[in-house]
Amino acid sequence: MTRKLHLNAFLMGVGHHEAAWRHPRTEPARLTDVRHYQELARIAERGKLDSVFLADGVALHGNVRHNALGGLEPLTLLSALAAVTDHIGLIATVSTTYNEPFHVARKFASLDHISGGRAGWNIVTSAGEAEARNFGLERPAHADRYARATEFLEVTRKLWDSWEDDAIVGDRVGGHYADTGKIHAIEHAGEHFAVRGPLNTARSPQGHPLLVQAGSSEAGKEFAARHAEAVFTAQQTLAEGQEFYADLKRRLAAHGRRADELLVLPGISPIIGSTEREALRLEKELEDLIIPAYGLAQLSTMTGIELTEDALDRPLPDVSVETEGAQSRRKLVVDLARREGLTVRQLLGRLAGGRGHRVVAGTPEQIADQLQEWFLNEAADGFNIMPPILPGGLSDFVDYVVPELQVRGLFRYEYEARTLRGNYGLERPASRYAAPREVAVAR
Amino acid sequence: MTRKLHLNAFLMGVGHHEAAWRHPRTEPARLTDVRHYQELARIAERGKLDSVFLADGVALHGNVRHNALGGLEPLTLLSALAAVTDHIGLIATVSTTYNEPFHVARKFASLDHISGGRAGWNIVTSAGEAEARNFGLERPAHADRYARATEFLEVTRKLWDSWEDDAIVGDRVGGHYADTGKIHAIEHAGEHFAVRGPLNTARSPQGHPLLVQAGSSEAGKEFAARHAEAVFTAQQTLAEGQEFYADLKRRLAAHGRRADELLVLPGISPIIGSTEREALRLEKELEDLIIPAYGLAQLSTMTGIELTEDALDRPLPDVSVETEGAQSRRKLVVDLARREGLTVRQLLGRLAGGRGHRVVAGTPEQIADQLQEWFLNEAADGFNIMPPILPGGLSDFVDYVVPELQVRGLFRYEYEARTLRGNYGLERPASRYAAPREVAVAR
């Protein structure tokens, strides 16, 4: 079978461009309207995309004076999308820093049941001070967050395994519902968590939800190599994309994993026109709607440099790009400005579309060329599609770019499987508690 | 307008009777099937019921060898029910003991948006040791749990108020999305929580979800009088129901609340037949399917008395019914056994149907008589309906008992409102942060 690429639709309010809410093709009042997201999920499913994905943070990030913020919590929302779709994968961001593994394991197991095996978890660790302060805490150190995340994931995996697949007997006549020998207390006792288990939700169709990760720091990459099955990443150039891809794939062996057990999905915001000129016009329309004060505040947060409107037409001030690892995005932004000799205003224009992710304006063929180049040159196993405006940018992608990818033999015409793991070509994990028994039988 | 009663359908797996999963009219494999719950919600909506409700605990309770346990997490499930219904209220149980107010406030605000104003929260405090051990904790003291719950609720209320109703300006031309003067940091700093806020979800249709409570201990009743808008309660006799009703309503004034600001909804498990004989036959069928070992374990947990099969045909051993307040259900059970002189086996039969809630077998008219008697004699503002088997017991109630209540003028023919609060006849709370401004204008 020819290798096919995988496509995830990254859903964000009325679009990824920070000025999307001001563009005539969006309706910002739909930010909290479930029908908006249901429409997006249906469009993605019509295009045979693997999954939709919702980012999240547990604080109000960004200046709501100048952007449409304050939307819905992802897990709650994804259940409502599951109800109106049949095939599309449903990936929610949930932080390991201010949560309990029992709750998170249970919610993802529930979503996996509700969706018939389409749940995915984007694991994040909540770096920001604003988030910490909503939970009575100061900002935790970067290393601590990943140590907690690793143990958190270990606990959730045990809980998902705590009911073996064949634990339910269902003998109504004999009055024997479940084989309690196949439902296990996990008795986890670690540095961060003590959890007895078992989970109080039976094992779900996928066993574990698809595990996704998006941190590109050293600690983030190690976490991904150990645990993640798909990685969302921001890479600006083919060379950077190739380097990241090779780096991540190389790390897998140390954890006993094959290269195909983790998919690398760089982000891309496609600005699509039926002609190149039309695409550039849409890009310009969005650029003209940018509010510099909003972008400056975002850039200050991202780089740690205080910037005012005086700085707009000068180059980005010199800053160290040695980071503590928490802010790999900072390095990307500073590198971008230096490489292309951008003024702050020009940099804002470049960041407004994708917050550091690649923005490509062009015809469906040109967009497909870009995806093909990265996919065939070991920079990507697929892409995280970030439409500048929603739903229009997603329906344009589905209606014009997807068919182009299909005729080139790069993308599916029909779903291969009913589960998210199945469509991503990943295995269903066995319960760790069942394994010894199976080995014994094999002997 | 004549006073109408309110009806909530308490959904529990394939039925409230502990042997429901063994009865030929149920399908226990549907326990984790979202379509089962969607069907139940649609049946309840067809009957114009106010709401459906899901209980919850964060541990595997009861012996899964002998009962169909291990279902879905309520909040995740309710979003999927919202997607296929238009009017029915959606009430989820969430504990204040092992959660963070920011997460809970956000999920309910999201569910309220997703459902168009139909979210309700049954506030529980997680008494059990099994739950504590899934969160690295010993069982907390009863008083502590309620102190935490009170502060937890205070924080969630502030967060729900943190966006005023008119905070969103939506001026696309001027680039002004929200009036940041109407989005408030809550700056909560208390004994249990420190939360800065604001919430990162805009104010929802109901402002706050409907607040429900079900504890009947002294601390529970005080909590309800202060915070709850609906109370689920287990009362066996009309006299007990009247006493509880009067007690709770009397407590409201001390908190500056009117008697009609809190609805009392006793639980009732109606075993319905088209003749009395048919109803009694169904009751007997279920009784014959009881597994004594299961009921004994439940009874031991409920009363704190270790019971074995030897004890089945003897009276319940003498125990103190002075409780620490945590176990008002214990007193109810012991009183029931004493009052009616029941053996342990007989008591198990009485508890199997509703775990201490009232069980009434009869024709639709007889069931309606019972509801009418309590409703007209100040023992109830409505009822928490606990069908012995699902979906059959709920569709029987909707198809035969509801029309009887309607012709008696006791129940609605059509929904009065689009929101859960509206149908329960309760007000929409104003944002506490908006109030001073409005007062100033009024002057």
Key features of this structure:
two-stranded antiparallel sheet; 443 residues; 8-stranded parallel barrel; globular; homodimer
- Full CATH superfamily name of chain A: Luciferase-like domain
Which blocks of ≥5 consecutive residues of chain A have pLDDT under 50? 439-443
Helix content of chain A: 25-40%
How are the strands ordered across the major sheet of chain A?
1-2-3-4-9-10-11-13
CATH architecture of chain A: Alpha-Beta Barrel
Mind telling me the C-alpha Rg of chain A?
22 Å
Number of helices of chain A: 15
Distance between the termini of chain A: 33 Å
Class by helix and strand content of chain A? alpha/beta
CATH overall fold name of chain A: TIM Barrel
Q: What is the N-to-C order of secondary-structure elements of chain A (H for helix, E for strand)?
A: EHEHEHEHHEEEEEHEHEHHHHEHEHHH
Q: What is the mean predicted local confidence, pLDDT of chain A?
A: 93
CATH first level of chain A: Alpha Beta
Taking the sheet with the most strands of chain A, its summary is: 8 strands, parallel, barrel
- Largest two-chain interface: A-B, 76 and 76 residues
Structure overview:
Chains A, B: This is LLM class flavin-dependent oxidoreductase. Chains A, B: Belongs to the NtaA/SnaA/DszA monooxygenase family. Two copies of one chain form a homodimer. Chain A is of the alpha/beta class and 443 residues long. Chain A has one domain: Luciferase-like domain (TIM Barrel, Alpha-Beta Barrel), CATH 3.20.20.30. Helices cover 39% and strands 14% of the residues of chain A. Chain A has 15 helices and 13 strands. In chain A, the strands form three sheets. An eight-stranded parallel β-barrel of chain A has the order 1-2-3-4-9-10-11-13, surrounded by eight helices. In chain A, helix 1 links the parallel strand 1 and strand 2. Mean pLDDT of chain A is 93; it is low at 439-443. At the A-B interface, helix 2, helix 3, strand 6 and strand 8 of A face helix 2, helix 3, strand 6 and strand 8 of B.
